[in-house]
Amino acid sequence: MAIWVYRNNKRAGATTDTLGSAACLYLAVRAVDMVYGVVGIVMGNEAIDASGSGITLSILGETALALEKEYALAQREEAAVLAKNEQLRANLLRSVSHDLRTPLTAITGCSSLLAEDDGSMSVEHRRELAVAINDDSIWLGGLVENLLSLTRIEEAHVSLSLEPELVEDAVDDAVRHVSRDVSTHHVELSRPDEPVVAMMDVRLIVQVVVNLVNNAVQHTPKGSTIHISSSSQDGKAVIEVADDGPGIADAEKARVFERFYTVADGEGDHRRGTGLGLALCKSIVNAHGGDIVVLDNPPHGAIFRVTLPLARTDAPEDSARLDSGSEGGTDDAD
User: Fold this and answer.
1) Would you state the torsion angle of the CA atoms of residues 35, 38, 39, 44, taken in this order, to the nearest 10 degrees?
2) For all residues of the chain together, what is the average pLDDT?
3) Is residue 315 part of a domain?
4) In this structure, are residues 219 and 278 in contact, taking their beta carbons and an 8 Å threshold?
5) Least confident of 87-101, 125-139, 165-179, 265-279
6) β-pairing, 236-243 with 34-42?
7) Residues 223 and 286 reside in one and the same domain
8) Residue 169, exposed/middle/buried by CB under 10 A (0-12, 13-18, 19+)?
9) C-alpha torsion angle, residues 177, 180, 182, 185 (rounded to 10)
């Protein structure tokens, strides 16, 4: 009966001509022609008097107005989300189209030179062209991987495989996967005094460190130093990627993790700055229940600090006492 009232926008049940034998009176909660719900009132032997009917209809009217307001707000929020998504798609197309053009042009040009070579090109020149093609291809692959990873994570299509992992092992693995351009910089590693074990999906955290190092390479001049460290601070696992480049202005620190936002500092190589790498880092770290911030590195430079939950290390002291504390046990220990 409630469904009938909802669909037909009419009262039914007790004291009405529609299924009047019912125990309840069903009224539509409506504003104009929009029905937001149905109220069922348990009836006695008598109908609601005029005063009670007026109060009831007033309550239903106020409820309908409140629901109408909530509905309108939800509609506006949905429209805002759609508009934002449309803007993001437009930004994505514009950004990717721009950033794909340069490496694709380079790949086409280098491959054409190799294909048209009549044997007069030196071996060294051919090798340089092949290396250029390889580097640009690797970068394009990284761009596609960042795009796919960012989309999957933000749409909750990625389930994290959280395991206790050594942070320094993840850092070592990341250093082996950074771009070839890192050879133009000095990379330093600092290991913690004691092993740091964090709960992480190691594959994704490796990608975070790779993106942070590549970001430092892109935004600092050749010869700059990039320092990567891991430690345990305040009950958190900490990974820091620091550089001695020009640094990041305070006004831009809050925006560096936005998609498609790139810092224009006049240093480094911005031809390959899509503004996706740091956004992906933030999404991954947040999905781990951690945090990522950018800080100053005095006297100049930037530090990207990642914090992750430490893995629980419950010492098996109680079980050890139980094993060795019984009178029938032995004093031998492995």
Assistant:
1) 120
2) 82
3) no
4) no
5) 265-279
6) unpaired
7) yes
8) middle
9) 150
Are 125 and 170 members of one domain? no
Same domain, 138 and 40: no
Using the structure block, give the residue that is written with the tokens 């998504």: 85
Residue 223 DSSP code: T
Final residue before a domain boundary, out of 154, 173, 207: 154
Q: How far is 260 from 277, CA to CA, in rounded Å? A: 9
The pLDDT of residue 274 is 57
Q: What is the tally of structural domains in the chain?
A: 3
Task: Please check whether residues 12 and 54 belong to one and the same domain.
Answer: yes
pLDDT digits (tens, 9 = 90+) for 206-265: 889 988 998 898 889 999 999 999 999 988 999 999 999 999 988 888 888 887 676 655
Are residue 223 and residue 245 in the same domain, yes or no? yes
Do residues 181 and 278 share a domain?
yes
Domain range for 106 is 89-154
Alpha-carbon radius of gyration of the chain: 32
Task: Out of 43, 77, 111, pick the residue that ends a domain.
Answer: 77
CA distance linking residue 318 with residue 330, whole number of Å: 17
Q: Which residues does residue 163 pair with via DSSP β-bridges, in sequence order?
A: 200
Q: Which pTM value belongs to this model? A: 0.57
pLDDT over 90 percentage in the chain: 43
Q: Is 238 helix (H, G, I), strand (E, B) or coil?
A: strand
Mean pLDDT within 72-93: 78
Lowest-confidence pick of 143-157, 246-260, 308-322: 308-322
Alpha-carbon distance of 131 to 123, in angstroms, equals 12
